[in-house]
Design goal:
Length: about 90
């Protein structure tokens, strides 16, 4: 539920403009992807990890994508797939 709440908020606000706790959000995203392994949530988890500048979480989320097409439209504006790949150096 935490991840869904912030997923909606981040359509309007930057992560830094919210009261989100990244560690809680990270765990909630993992639970959400485990429960609903849809391309949307997998792509969103990777994008949010990039926003949070969490290399480990980004790498972990990115690992879920090979079997899933990258849906660039699911990535947060300003933190798209290509920009995050460059940031992470992968």
């Amino acid at each position: 539920m935490y991840a869904r709440l912030y997923d909606n908020l981040l359509m309007r606000y930057r992560l830094s403009e919210t009261e989100a706790d990244w560690q809680i959000l990270r765990g909630s995203l993992k639970e959400l992807v485990d429960r609903y392994p849809t391309p949307y949530y997998k792509n969103r988890a990777a994008s949010l990890a990039c926003v949070a500048k969490d290399t480990a979480a980004f790498t972990e989320a990115l690992a879920t994508l090979p079997a899933t097409p990258v849906h660039k439209g699911d990535w947060i504006k300003g933190h798209g797939y290509d920009a995050c790949i460059r940031w992470a150096g992968t």
